[in-house]
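=== RUN LOG ===
request id: a7f3
mode: sequence -> structure
chains: 1
length: 118
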Amino acid sequence: MLKKKAIVIADDNANIRLTLKDILTDSGYVIDTVKDGYELVAYLKKSQPQLVILDLIMPEKDGIEVFDCLKCLQPETKVIIYTAYQKYTDSLYARRADRFVLKNSPVQELLEAIKDLI
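=== RESULT ===
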C-alpha cells in the first residue's frame, strides 16, 4: 500500500485554503489547513507533513516569522512558499525554501512543484 502524501496549507485566505485543499485532495493528497503561523507551529508539534505550502504574509504570526521555526521542528519537511508578493521572489526565504510560487501563477505550476518535491 502506498503511503499517503500529507500536505499542510498555511494561508490566512479561507478561499485559497479551501480551493487548494479541493484541488490537491482530488489529486490524491491528504490535506490539512491552518490559517496562521501560530496554528502551523502547533500543527507541526503534533504532525509530520511531507510538505508545507506557506503563505508569507498572514495576520498574527506570518510565514516569515515561522519559517525558521518550521525548519527546526521539521527539518525533513519540504516548503513551498506560496505568496502574492513578487517582492519576495529574490528574498532569503525564497532561496531557502524548496520552491517559490506566486499566487497569480497558473495552479499547474504549484502542482508541478508539489509533484517534484514529494
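=== NOTES ===
The mean pLDDT is 90.
The longest helix spans residues 14-26.
=== END ===
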